[in-house]
Amino acid sequence: MNDLLNLFIYIDEYLIKSLSSVYLNGYIDIRTSKRICDNTLAGRIHLDENNKTFCSDGKSRIYNKGFKTNNRSNDFNETNCYGNDRSIENRLFGRTEEEIKRIYTSFEIHNTMLKRMTTSKVVKDLENSPLVDSHISEGDFIRTKGCITETSLSSYLDSIISLIECFPLDILDSLLKDKNLGKLNFSIILNLLKTIKDKLSLNSTEDIIMNCSNYTAILNTNSKYFLNGDCYVFDKCNCNCNVLGKVIKVCTNNNDCINLLRKLTQENYYIDLLKSIEPYLDLLKNLNIPIPKCPEPKVKSPAVLIAPISMYF
Fold it and tell me: A Pfam family in this protein (predicted)?
């Protein structure tokens, strides 16, 4: 019953529908039924009445060799015709068709699929299990719970870019005189940061860091799958959240990590690049301009990278 009352903030409909073909029927039932009633009334009345009268009167004389003959005729002919034709017709046609459509929502498919996967022991519960002892591997489906942190490399870059754009670049570059910090200036730094931010935001994906009981979970989310596009994950920052997802990578060795810059394909280069601009940001900090702290790009073991199917409270 508690699962039915979950408040979803993220649901990957494409992944859910794909999984439903494996763990459910894979199709949506639609039954069509229509109800239609036709009623037709037709009437006809025909009246016909005729009255005909014919009358003739004639007189003739015939002379034949001294004889005279008189003939007279009088004819009368009367015809009366009367016709009455009446008819009425009533037709009633009845036709019954019913139309009923049953369309399952993503929430219904999600809950039904989760129950089926739980019953089949496909989903592993990591809510209270140490990551090292959980025996999970890449490709497993897991269910876990943790606290959404405010750590976000994309948000950090947004803050630095906005800060630099608040000042004229020529004024910022003038601060570099006699500092011997290198060949970079704030104009170059601004372009570099925008390039990194654009690459990190390709296809609307973003990493969300979640602290679980004894490990760190990195959720590789897509902003398109937050409900209706009106939900922002950091609205629920520092709140506990349930996650159902598929494991992409597991880090249990001390020397292993998950890099938040892995999407850029040259992780170490971009780590060095972000470190190289820190002295330039320190100049602003020395002018009492607050500077956000750069998140650690490498999330150390124990950690797990998850492609979330759903996130809910």
Answer: DUF6414
